[in-house]
């Protein structure tokens, strides 16, 4: 992590724990919002007007938080006006790095080797982990925001004047219900899998596992229509999807979330495939980055060996013979093909 702008090596996520061995996630520190007219958003300062080509999104394809923002960018059809830079899938001793791995990019703005160098461009005295996603303002050369929940929400409305869309991921009439459902999903599922994986006590692991499977059971019974709120896709579905799509391939093995697989939940499996088949979503799901990235987390898997089942899962995410023609589908964790 960075301490007063200097990189401190060999920090591992398991080191961020409370007295019971529970993994603690860092709170994001850049919280400005892009808005249609540049007025300040719910947090931070103003000055970030929606303009085509002005901003850049730094992401990791392994990362569920970054993937939320990537899916919103696709579904809101913002690809042409909001470019992205993809980091390599493995977290090095210096955090996220740029370039070299298939599907990853060099840093086009600073020629940085590591993401922490982008953070010190934003704040030469920054202290904290250099996380993704990062939303960068290429006009003022400052970091706008590094909190995916904010970015997901601002992409829903900020660029409406430039690229109008009928899709509302956070519609007014569902706002309260979305906020209410997001809270346990974040705590017990999205972050719950990390709390299981990075637990440093049996008690913390057991607690995380209970939360994860209680939440999956709850979602399985809640799902009546196509999406969690009936026939309308919302940001809550995106938040759930990014964890579901990584679950059987990575969390089940590496994070020991192995009581059940998503493949064992019929409604959740169908729901995950439904979202995977929305236009553009498949482009945000790179199973190679996901399995390679997670299974190279040294603290959990020192030798970086990838279980075979995850490869079959990766192939299954591609176009193949079964299912509905032209649709993406998940086969589950068979070792075939
Ligand atoms: N609250 C942040 C969390 C982002 C986050 O933790 N990202 C992870 C990757 S999935 C990261 O960049 N970790 C870098 C590190 O641990 O050094 C958000 O949702 O945007």
TrEMBL record:
Keywords of this entry: Transferase
Q: Which GO terms describe its cellular component?
A: cytoplasm
- The annotated site for Lowers pKa of active site Cys falls at 251, 294
Record domain GST C-terminal: where: 171-303
Which residues are catalytic? Answer: 63 (nucleophile), 194 (proton donor/acceptor)
- Source organism, top-level taxon: Bacteria
Gene3D superfamilies tied to this protein: 1.20.1050.10, Glutaredoxin
Q: Extract the coiled-coil ranges from the record.
A: none
- Report residues binding glutathione: 96, 129-132, 147-148
SUPFAM superfamilies given for it?
A: GST C-terminal domain-like, Thioredoxin-like
Question: Which one of the record's GO molecular function terms can you name?
Answer: glutathione transferase activity
Q: Which Pfam families match?
A: GST_C_2, GST_N_2
The entry's protein name is Putative glutathione S-transferase
């Amino acid at each position: 992590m960075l301490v007063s702008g200097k990189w401190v090596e060999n920090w591992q996520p398991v080191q961020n724990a409370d007295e019971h061995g529970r993994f603690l996630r860092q709170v994001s520190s850049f919280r400005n919002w892009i808005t249609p007219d540049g007025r300040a958003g719910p947090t931070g300062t103003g000055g970030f007007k929606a303009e085509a080509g002005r901003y850049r999104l730094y992401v990791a394809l392994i990362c569920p938080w970054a993937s939320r923002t990537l899916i919103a960018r696709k579904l809101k059809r913002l690809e042409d006006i909001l470019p992205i830079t993809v980091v390599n899938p493995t977290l090095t001793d210096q955090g996220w790095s740029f370039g070299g791995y298939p599907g990853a990019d060099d840093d086009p703005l600073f020629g940085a080797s590591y993401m922490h160098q982008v953070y010190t461009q934003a704040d030469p005295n920054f202290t904290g982990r250099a996380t993704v996603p990062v939303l960068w303002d290429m006009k003022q050369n400052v970091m706008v925001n590094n909190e995916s929940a904010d970015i997901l929400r601002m992409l829903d409305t900020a660029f409406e004047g430039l690229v109008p869309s009928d899709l509302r991921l956070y519609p007014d009439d569902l706002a309260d219900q979305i906020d209410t459902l997001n809270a346990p999903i974040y705590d017990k599922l999205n972050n719950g899998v990390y709390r299981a994986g990075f637990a440093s006590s049996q008690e913390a692991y057991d607690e995380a596992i209970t939360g994860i499977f209680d939440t999956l059971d709850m979602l399985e019974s809640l799902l009546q229509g196509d999406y969690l709120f009936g026939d309308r896709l919302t940001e809550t579905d995106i938040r759930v999807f990014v964890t579901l799509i990584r679950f059987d391939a990575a969390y089940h093995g590496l994070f020991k979330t192995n009581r059940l697989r998503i493949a064992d939940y019929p409604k959740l499996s169908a729901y995950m495939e439904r979202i995977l088949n929305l236009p553009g979503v498949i482009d945000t799901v790179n199973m190679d980055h996901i399995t390679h990235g997670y299974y190279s987390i040294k603290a959990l898997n020192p030798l970086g060996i990838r279980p075979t089942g995850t490869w079959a899962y990766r192939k299954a995410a591609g176009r193949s013979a079964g299912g509905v023609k032209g649709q993406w589908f998940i086969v589950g964790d068979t070792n075939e093909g």
